[in-house]
């Protein structure tokens, strides 16, 4: 019988830690993001990097012995001078080395070259020395020092991983002993056997031997045995690093092997993107394409050999769309992790380039480039778990007008078919996935996206189960729709000939850009606040009315874009028998704001600024004035919609500072604490509608999954403790808002 998988058709930080070669600084960055830390170097190493750099050993090619030097200093290269010992020991001679501290500009230039070429050749060193006014020997020693520092950090981190593995082995050994002890204590008097679970000492010994073998394999992969941790690194720092369980499997593969896997994946993505039947079949019920899995295994037999043990779910999808960006620029954005994260801000909560496997060619240095990357994928609700994945990304130019971006997970497990360790953060692995980008005309590109994932079995809340299990949540349609919306926003942001009707209330282009920037920052902050990312720890509570909610809290100390103090976020998700289009229109209509916004109940609401940021009139930014008897408040609102999902984000803003933004001032440090709604289809196309914006929508749209998140500053002191009264005030506001929505839309309790 044919198997099928359904899819959709439709700070100041130092430059030292910005190097992609620093693959092992990842844990410190991730685990300290939620605490607002802006110095990943100190968080990761637990002390100033400069102190560590001062202890770097400089290895001279002319002298096999090590010579101590500062990392930012280098020897002047002067001849050693002899001094007579004042005590009369004339035979004893001292060698004096003269040190020179590099300037900030010299360090910056050398760091820039180091990011591209950690091992510069003689010609590059000569050219750089002339440019910076340094001796070639100084440049050579500086690069040696920098490589030594990176290697030391990597070794310390790998050592922490081994220590964590040893501790895990001890705990499992202890658990097995306790299990055996309990089994003996509850043995059956008739047969003498254990009445409970457990096993014989031989079974436990065998299992423990397997665990030791796994640890030995890890040691062999790293190429050495553990050594004592340095006393200068605190236990807390190593615990933070170890808790991430940095993906080390790829480091056991030769780079040539990784390149080979990436090349093979590129061919597979090209085939998957261009093939029709029988590889892809179209569903008569949903109109979405289905991957014929039997045909897939015939076409790619190596996929069977690299299947993942213990996994129960496969998601495959394909979609095509036209975007407002040329192919080359779009390919560059995929290879720049910050731009990639910004393009898919609603889908990606974390992303980092762990290592550069191979540098690219051409003017932009991306053709043929291969990078090891990490990403955490999210849905805009705290009730759906995030998906964390390490993968290799490659970029290749197929023709002057066509590029291909390919992602594929690689690890030791792929070669030896060993099972993945339980509890690993690698809950998701990418089979060859990616997109083909082809220039069309007038700066547009055609994007054909293939998403192919292996997932471990996981429990999804019933409300979102259909949406996630059908592959809609993280399928190709979601990625393409998000990319289209982002590129369209960029076009409208850079436009200079904006019609008056698309820029009401703002008289200058500078003012328009400032307001759009402020709205984008607000929306991205909302994305971070609402999802289930490990940035936050969500607690499930039940209100007095029996409604389930998720609550998280955080302390803001350093982010000037948010108010300082203790912030509480409360969120609730529910199904509504209303089409997503109607629900989105309801929230963006300022004349109906008083129907759902508890804080503007009875007030007069009027838009004083309205800026279009897309072809769909629903994509807009507005500033609304909410006038009550007591005061007047300004509310910034960002409305985003595409063929997949809709988002409405809003926040009260200070009137005086917002007036400066409208005049064109920088909005970066304006404090904003956003609230909002995420609206997605429920994944059930055949569900009968109760309310629809048009009669013909009844058979084409299902209901909506609505997620509401409200944030409140409960105390201006970051040191204050959170109390239940503060939590209840936020959850009550969520309950009132949801009740108002149901009442306005004439919906009975769902």
UniProtKB/TrEMBL annotation:
Pfam family, one: PDF2_C
Compositionally biased intervals (Polar residues): 58-68
Residue ranges occupied by any START domain in the UniProt entry: 251-492
Region (Disordered): 31-105, 180-201
Signal peptide residue numbers: none
PROSITE patterns registered for this protein in UniProt: HOMEOBOX_1, HOMEOBOX_2, START
Subcellular location: Nucleus
Molecular function in Gene Ontology: DNA binding; DNA-binding transcription factor activity, RNA polymerase II-specific; lipid binding
Compositionally skewed regions (Gly residues) per UniProt: 191-200
Biased composition (Acidic residues): 74-86
Composition skew (Basic residues), residue ranges: 91-101
GO CC, one annotated term: nucleus
DNA-binding region residue numbers: 95-154
SMART domains tied to this protein: HOX, START
Domain Homeobox intervals: 93-153
Keywords assigned: Coiled coil, DNA-binding, Homeobox, Nucleus, Transcription, Transcription regulation
Family, similarity comment: Belongs to the HD-ZIP homeobox family. Class IV subfamily.
Descriptive protein name: GL2a
Organism: Brassica oleracea
